[in-house]
Every structure is written in structure tokens, then in C-alpha cells.
């Protein structure tokens, strides 16, 4: 799994780490049941503090995308690929709407107005 962070991204680093892993899941680089590299290995590869990586991983666990298992490490959760794709697309939609001057509530209202 090749991950990278965008130095121009203004989001907090832990969100960028989570986004990179979410993208890897959405694009099929790793799927349900696959084991992720250790937090230490990820921190070295991304050149960020290990606590930053752990915070990003915990966020993905809380979203239901990752499972933490003692002795087995961090694995991609069952069904995570579909959730990850939807989450990624939703974030892209919200970001594009913000660039166009719309708020999240505007996007929600637009979605509710769809047939």
C-alpha cells in the first residue's frame, strides 16, 4: 500500500493520514481482512509522528473502516470498501460545494430535494 500526503493540504495531519488510508481502501489497494502496516511503519513512510498516525487510525476505526485486534494488528473491516468509497465521494462533494460557495447544509438540502 503506497500512501502519500500532500504538503499543500491544510487539513490536520491525522485527517490527511486517515484520508490517504480511506482512499487506498476505496481504490482497492487493500480490502476487507487485509492487514495494514504498523503505525510505526506508516509514520516512517509518511514522515509524521506515530501518534498522528494512531489518531488517524482511531478515527477510521470509529467510522467502522478498520478493526483493531490484539495480536493481529489493524485490518480493514468487512464492508469497508463500499463505506470508504461512499465516504470519499461525499467528502469530495462537500469540498467541491464549498469551493462553489455552498455550505454542508446547502448540500443536504439539495440531496433532500432529489426525487
UniProtKB/TrEMBL annotation:
Keywords: DNA-binding, Transcription, Transcription regulation
Family annotation (Pfam families): GntR
SUPFAM superfamilies: Winged helix' DNA-binding domain
Coiled coil: none
InterPro entries cross-referenced by the UniProt entry: Tscrpt_reg_HTH_GntR, WH-like_DNA-bd_sf, WH_DNA-bd_sf
SMART domains xrefs: HTH_GNTR
Ranges for domain HTH gntR-type: 11-79
Source species taxonomy: Bacteria, Bacillati, Actinomycetota, Actinomycetes, Kitasatosporales
A GO term for molecular function: DNA-binding transcription factor activity
Protein name: GntR family transcriptional regulator
Amino acid at each position: 500500500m503506497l500512501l502519500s500526503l500532500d504538503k499543500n493540504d491544510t487539513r490536520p495531519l491525522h485527517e490527511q493520514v486517515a484520508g490517504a488510508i480511506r482512499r487506498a481502501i476505496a481504490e482497492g489497494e487493500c480490502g476487507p481482512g487485509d492487514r495494514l502496516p504498523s503505525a510505526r511503519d506508516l509514520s516512517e513512510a509518511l514522515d509524521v509522528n506515530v501518534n498522528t498516525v494512531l489518531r488517524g487510525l482511531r478515527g477510521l476505526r470509529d467510522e467502522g473502516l478498520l478493526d483493531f485486534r490484539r495480536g493481529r494488528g489493524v485490518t480493514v473491516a468487512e464492508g469497508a470498501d463500499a463505506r470508504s468509497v461512499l465516504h470519499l465521494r461525499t467528502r469530495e462533494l462537500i469540498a467541491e460545494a464549498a469551493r462553489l460557495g455552498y455550505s454542508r447544509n446547502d448540500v443536504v438540502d439539495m440531496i433532500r430535494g432529489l426525487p
